[in-house]
Design goal:
97 residues; mainly alpha; 4 helices; globular
Length: 97
């Protein structure tokens, strides 16, 4: 879990790494609090398509002129987001925590 968060959800991130992390954590999120929190952080980061503060999106290097509206993520909205991404299974190379 730590390696996935460091590699894919660290301060320098992009959509493909965030999606890979979400795909890895989603199947474990119903049994692991760490996976659930990690998945929710990755989903919020994936949804924010800009760089802001210390967190840089290499695929969205610019900061928007106005800060984005506050986002509130629930378990249901997070799972809906993951379903819409079509990420339901962990990568073949990342099957265990």
């Amino acid at each position: 879990m730590r390696a996935v968060m460091t590699r894919d959800v660290g301060v320098v991130r992009d959509a493909s790494g965030l999606a890979r992390a979400i795909g890895f954590m989603h199947p474990h999120s119903h049994v692991s609090g760490h996976a659930l929190v990690g998945m929710m952080v990755a989903v919020a980061a994936h949804n924010r398509q800009e760089s802001r503060g210390a967190h840089a999106r290499t695929d969205f290097a610019q900061t928007l002129p106005q800060p984005p509206a506050q986002q509130i993520w629930t378990l249901d909205s997070t799972n809906d987001y993951v379903q819409n991404l079509g990420l339901h299974r962990p990568s073949r190379h990342m099957r265990s925590l």
